[in-house]
Fold these 3 entries.
Entry 1:
Amino acid sequence: EAQVTQNPRYLITVTGKKLTVTCSQNMNHEYMSWYRQDPGLGLRQIYYSMNVEVTDKGDVPEGYKVSRKEKRNFPLILESPSPNQTSLYFCASSDRYSGRNEQFFGPGTRLTVL
Amino acid sequence: AQSVTQLDSHVSVSEGTPVLLRCNYSSSYSPSLFWYVQHPNKGLQLLLKYTSAATLVKGINGFEAEFKKSETSFHLTKPSAHMSDAAEYFCVGGSSASKIIFGSGTRLSIRP
């Protein structure tokens, strides 16, 4: 089954404790992206990657890191989480970078930073 | 500059009545436009997509949307609401080389 998976689905942590949210897709897509969703703000892009070893900042990259060492994986790293990073996070992929292409979304990761 | 505006943050309709979720876009070029649906505790799922082949686009679950260039609109409609349609809906715009822009979302509630 074609899908985007994220782990963990739920995470409660404390300020400053490094964490990683994994994202994996099995569709051989070139383009992957991370979003955060906050009430009333829709989805805002954090980082995106057009291909292996190619990453770039989205609209709200501060406090986040990503890597793209393999085509299928695109982990999101919070080196020192803060309470304002409490949010619902989505990973997405599409077959190439284009605003005309459908994105496939993971199920989401709900993060709470105390 | 490109933008996508969802005109209603919350829409409530009775089961069996029509649904209208409004989306306006601003773009200096012909955009691609999408509607995604997000059910509670779920990811986003594509409902339908406009890419200039036809102005009236039919999607899943009986939804459709019409691209009106003169009004810069891409409103989502359904003739008869079902309880299972209760969800958050996002209008999204993009073009071949541009960023993907999400609207702020519209929460659809269905009254029995």
Entry 2:
Amino acid sequence: EAQVTQNPRYLITVTGKKLTVTCSQNMNHEYMSWYRQDPGLGLRQIYYSMNVEVTDKGDVPEGYKVSRKEKRNFPLILESPSPNQTSLYFCASSPGLGWQDGYTFGSGTRLTVV
Amino acid sequence: LAKTTQPISMDSYEGQEVNITCSHNNIATNDYITWYQQFPSQGPRFIIQGYKTKVTNEVASLFIPADRKSSTLSLPRVSLSDTAVYYCLVGPILTGGGNKLTFGTGTQLKVEL
């Protein structure tokens, strides 16, 4: 089944403790992206990657890092999480940048930073 | 990307047709209009996309007037399971670079019995 898999689904952590949220897709998609969703703010893009070793900032990149060493994986790294990063996170992939109808989203990761 | 404006929320009843309008006054010539649906705690999923006039698929219809400054997503005979947030997106497709999928706050549709 074609899908985007995020792990974990739920995570509670403490301020300052580094964490990684994994994202993997099995569709050989070139483009991958991370979003965060907060009440009243909709989905905001954090980082995106157009291909292996090519990443760029989205609208809200502060406090986050990403890497794209392999085509299928696009982990989101929080080096020193803070409470304002408590949010619902989604990973998405598509065949290429610009495929507005081809985006597949993961099931989400609900992160709580205390 | 063209900025979009949608109603924050809408209410309907089962069996009724629901029309959600999106305004995009500064839409560009090469922009397409795309709608996504999102259920609670799930990622958005693609519903429909169009450039002009009318597009219909098994889920919805999309009406785009000649000036393309607005569009209307039409959901025929909604059911409780159509309760979700609906996002209107406007932007170029298949350009190979520079654009990204940008979501607004969407329209929360609530369907009741």
Entry 3:
Amino acid sequence: DGGITQSPKYLFRKEGQNVTLSCEQNLNHDAMYWYRQDPGQGLRLIYYSQIVNDFQKGDIAEGYSVSREKKESFPLTVTSAQKNPTAFYLCASSKDDPGGRTQHFGDGTRLSIL
Amino acid sequence: SQQGEEDPQALSIQEGENATMNCSYKTSINNLQWYRQNSGRGLVHLILIRSNEREKHSGRLRVTLDTSKKSSSLLITASRAADTASYFCATAQGAGTASKLTFGTGTRLQVTL
């Protein structure tokens, strides 16, 4: 079955540590996205990538970094500069569609501070 | 920034009743989408309505869009316990590869037996 796989499901970060969240898709979608969701809130866009080797900042990119070396993969690094990283992180992908792009989501990674 | 605001924030109904959620947004859109999120899971796309459409149906879902009022509503008819989830509207300002989604704050729906 095609889909998006995020790993790990739970992740703990120590002070001063960078951590990387994995996102892999086998849907052959060109665009991929990273969102942050805080409790009881909607999704806020961190970074997105429309094609391989290209990505753009979203609304809350500070303290995060990404890469897009392969179409299938869009890892997110939460750096030590992100002072409040505790949140639920969601990865999504979409393909071009004349009717309008819809997004397919993974099941998220919950990041907590030790 | 969050474009959409959903109303109500939380809704509790009994099985078999209808549930209506509203979404308001601020800027012009290409399309508006509704997603569902079960607790601790990712979002699942439900329905998309384009800016030149006024109403759309999919199974027990009915979506309306009023671009003059910058608002949309999602109606779930004959609700079931399995409909318990958070529901989000999302607006797309661009089209094609330029399209990003901006999500609202969500409505938490509880359907009791």
